[in-house]
Amino acid sequence: MTDTLHIAMDAVEEAAKLLYIRALKVLPDDIKQGFARLDSTESDGLARSVLATMIENIAVAERTDNLLCQDTGIPIYNVTIGRNVSFDGWELKQAIRRGTERATREHPLRSSVVHPLTRVNEHTSCGLHVPVINLDFSDEDRVLRIEMVPKGSGSENGSFLQMLIPADGIAGIKRFVVDAAIRAGGKVCPPTILGVGLGGTSDLCMHLAKVAATRALGSRCADPEGAKLEQELGEAVNSLGIGPQGLGGDSTAFAVHVELAATHITMNPVAVNVQCHSARRASATFTASGVEIGF
């Protein structure tokens, strides 16, 4: 009989707390390498100066154990459930919420979450349907992964959706994405990761755009046509001259990432979601050996 990995809810709560704090204070290595790559290829003098300042700000924040950005964002937890993993789903949801609240109160962090009508802030980084919890599944045996992404409003406000039709073709997709990058301009704190969701339904498409925006730099779309589109869009976006912080230059985006889903024969939804230069994330992997914290 196959052994089962039983997940303790106190461990989930503690992980949710630690991941929120870690994501806000430690930038993943792939993003630091992305900065180094842009810095080595940027041709504009002002843009190089801006990049140098951003790189130094990251170093100072980590050196002094401070936040990378004052915006603690909307807390998002992506939970991937492997085979032979046992837990109570409702208890998992509550444990993640408790961990989010504890991170905000104990650290303490500025709560950026308010009621959409009254604008009342509970000062817990929680509210109606927040934290956001997304569930997915994998074929890994006895593994549970929790990824935490604090999504700031500067980048999240750079979100766009259009319900294209098949006749718009690939040219229409490219035009929409490039237009979205122009509309976002410097408001999304470039250099960015531009996430593109293509296909599915309107809600799935937007979700895929966010999945794409929060993928690690250096990863590629699993679909060959999607990977090709990533390359072409990346070159197009970086030719716009928006540059770091919108002040001009070659370094508008670290990358453009694309995620695809099958869609209806009479439609082709396209969405853009932006991740700012402080592309924060952290993850915990639960196995029989314990809990490993990383990116």
UniProtKB/TrEMBL annotation:
Keywords: 4Fe-4S, Iron, Iron-sulfur, Lyase, Metal-binding. Pfam families: Fumerase (PF05681). It is an enzyme of class 4 (lyase). Its EC number is 4.2.1.2. The keyword Iron-sulfur applies. It comes from the Bacteria. InterPro entries: Class-I_Fumarase/Tartrate_DH (IPR051208), Fe-S_hydro-lyase_TtdA-typ_cat (IPR004646). Residues 14-284 form the Fe-S hydro-lyase tartrate dehydratase alpha-type catalytic domain. GO terms for molecular function: fumarate hydratase activity. NCBIfam families: PRK06246.1 (NF004885), ttdA_fumA_fumB (TIGR00722). Belongs to the class-I fumarase family. This is Fumarate hydratase. It comes from Sabulicella glaciei.
